[in-house]
Amino acid sequence: MFFHAHPDDEALLTAGTMARLAHQGHRVVLVLATAGEQGLASGELREQGLGEVRQREAYRSARLLGCARVVFLGYADSGRTAPASGTGPGRATRAPVPFAAADVDEAAHRLAAVLAEERADLLTVYDPGGGYGHPDHVQVHRVGYRAAELAGTPCVLEATVDRDLLLRGLRAAGWFYRFPPEFDRNAFRQAFAPGTEITHRVAVRRFWRAKRDSMTAHRSQATGGESERTLAALRRLPGPLFRYVLGTEWYIQRGLSATEVLDDPLTTLPRRRTSDSL
C-alpha cells in the first residue's frame, strides 16, 4: 500500500516501484489523503473543480501503474501554509478538515482500516520532513506510522530522494539549463534525506514508460504558477535521460542502517490477488 498526500505525488516518488510490484503479481493499492484541490493549476481547471479533476487523474495514473484499488481518505488539501497538526479529540470530525490539521489518531484509524482490510504487508510513507516540508507530507509520515502500528503492518518504508544525488544533479543541470530566477537550489540542501540514511534503492528503469505515463496522467499539474512545473519538465526528458535520472527510487526503513542493507525489500513480499485490478 502506497500512502500519498495528493494526486501526482505517487508519480514523482513511487510510480516505478508500484509498476514493478504490479508486474511481479503483487496487489498494489494507492491511498491518497486528499484530492489535491489546492494545487497550482490554470483558471479553467479550477472552474471545473480542481479536486474532481485531480481525482480522475489519480485513477488514470493508478490504472497505468497496475493498481488494484485507489482509496481517498477524504481530507482537504491543506496548501503550503497549513496549520499545525491537531491533537485534540474530534478535530477531524468536521468535513472537510485540512489533512495537516486532522487529529493524527483519527486519521490513522481511517488508514488502519484499509490496511487491515487489504492485509497489507508493506506501507510507504514519507521521511519525517515530508520530503520538502509540505505540511500534508509531514502528516503522512505521522499518520502512516501510527496506522501501521494499529493495523500490525509489518514493514513501513519512507519514500524519499537521495539528497546528495539530487544536489549533484542540480549542479550539473545548471551547466545546460537556465533555472528561472525564483528557483533556489540551496533550498534543497535540507530537503529529503542524505544518502547515508537510504536503506533501499529500488531499480525501476525497466518501468520508465509506466512512470512517465503516470506523470502524463496528471495533466492539471503540468501548468499553473509563474514558472515551469517539475512534472512537466521531467516528463519531457528524452527516454534515455529519463531512465537515467528517474531509474531509481529511494526508501528508508527505520531500524536498519545504509551499511546493513542496500537490497530491494520487495522480492520477499507474498503476492496478493490482482484479478480485481482497476
Automatic annotation (TrEMBL):
Keywords carried by this UniProt record: Zinc
Annotated InterPro entries: GlcNAc_PI_deacetylase-related, LmbE-like_dom_sf
Keyword presence, Cell inner membrane: no
Keyword Plastid: no
Gene Ontology molecular function: hydrolase activity, acting on carbon-nitrogen (but not peptide) bonds, in linear amides
A Gene Ontology BP annotation from the UniProt entry: glycoside metabolic process
PANTHER family given in the database record: 1D-MYO-INOSITOL 2-ACETAMIDO-2-DEOXY-ALPHA-D-GLUCOPYRANOSIDE DEACETYLASE, N-ACETYLGLUCOSAMINYL-PHOSPHATIDYLINOSITOL DE-N-ACETYLASE-RELATED
Name of the featured protein: PIG-L domain-containing protein
Organism lineage string: Bacteria, Bacillati, Actinomycetota, Actinomycetes, Kitasatosporales
